[in-house]
Amino acid sequence: MQANPLNQYSGKLIAVEGLDGSGKSIQLYLVKRWLELGGYRVFFTEWNSSDLVKKATKRGKKQNLLNPTTFSLIHATDFADRYERQILPLLRAGFITLADRYIFTAFARDEVRGCSKKWLRNLYGFAPIPDLIFYFKLPPEIAYRRMLSARPKLKYYEAGMDLGLHNDIYESFKIFQGNISEKYNQMSEEFGFIIVDANQPVEKQQGMIRGIISENIDLSKFKIRGTDRS
Fold this sequence. Notes:
Radius of gyration: 18 Å
Number of domains: 1
Low-confidence stretches: none
Distance between the termini: 42 Å
CATH class: Alpha Beta
Order of helices and strands: EHEHHEHHEHHEH
Shape: globular
């Protein structure tokens, strides 16, 4: 990975990572609302949401056309498009940019699918390391139960069925998520993840996150003029 070039921009980048069902998206939404209501410049982006490649991704998944390499490349294309069109311009413009999943999602999922760790690091070498990375750590079995309670029908690639881990989609999902969890844990020290106990109450997690953001980012620099209510 390249050295972090974020200090050349006036904005800040905050990312959240974790297993499906860890609650990271809810927590990031709460952070977004907190910053918006406080009158700060904030922008939100999420994984695999680029209009440029959305149709191709949907078609590839629907027809089971994606092998590990093409699966990885199509997500890298999605990320590169969002980075150039959204993330980078907003960082330059002085926004706090919130990313619901970042390159670490690819590092975990794609390596589990068999892609080379070195190749993945090079593939995303253009992407700066965020100022803050919150990793919502949750035992895979709890994440699994949460997922099934919210959405009982699993998707083919979501469950890792393309890897031949198990004939049963639910068992495949358990194994796949467990393997991804191991990759996240391995990356934690490498990239300085801030670990959040995703088993704690939502309010406690949010309080911790807001405290860390406030301690590490001078929020006054991101205040929109005319919104100071003090």
